[in-house]
Amino acid sequence: MFPSISTTFQYLAWQKLYETEKPFKLFVDLPAHVSDQRRTNLEFRSKDAEDIIDVRGYEASFSLDIHGFQFIKHTTSVEDFHDLTEVQEKYFKEVAEIIRDNVEDVERVVIFDWRLRTSMNEDEYMKGRVNLSNRSEAILPAVYPHIGTSSPRLQFGPQEELVIGAQIKRLRAPSAE
Q: pLDDT tens digits, the chain, 177 residues: what are they?
């Protein structure tokens, strides 16, 4: 059995207005002449407590075909994840190779989206410029919910991770072994 803790999360609550308006949160000030001064239309609700499992040390217990994810250790040749060209020329190739090496019968791998996430808080982030069209600039963190604010990982300054969206086309479905 894996070690775990129990906690509650906030989830986006469905609102009827989402039928005609996308959920949003603005991180910039609106000009005074804009009639709708809402900076968000998000509403969150807590659900029952959920068990969060610590899989450190058990990474090999998970496989993509059975669990929908797996852990793979990799050392990248990328030196600067803020360098768009370096990420696209080096890291995309590395990710495609990792997928081909770990997923059976891959015909093609297409990297269709990526974002650099950082552990800086919203106030720190907002001191900088916001350019959502530049994928090499950081987006707000998802680190705290994943590893907790007391993690030793956060004691060494801001953390970053690259989030990759990839489409994998297989020649055949995985075996049902």
A: 678 889 998 999 999 999 999 999 888 888 899 999 999 999 999 989 999 888 888 889 988 888 888 888 888 898 888 888 998 899 889 988 998 888 888 888 888 777 776 655 556 655 554 555 555 454 444 433 443 344 443 343 444 444 455 555 555 555 555
Contact 120, 158 (CB under 8 A): yes
Contacts 24+ apart (CB under 8 A), 88-96: 91/162, 95/164, 95/166, 96/166
The pTM for the full model equals: 0.51
Closest to 140 in 3D by CA, of 123, 157, 165, 164: 123
Q: Are 139 and 117 in contact (CB under 8 A)?
A: yes
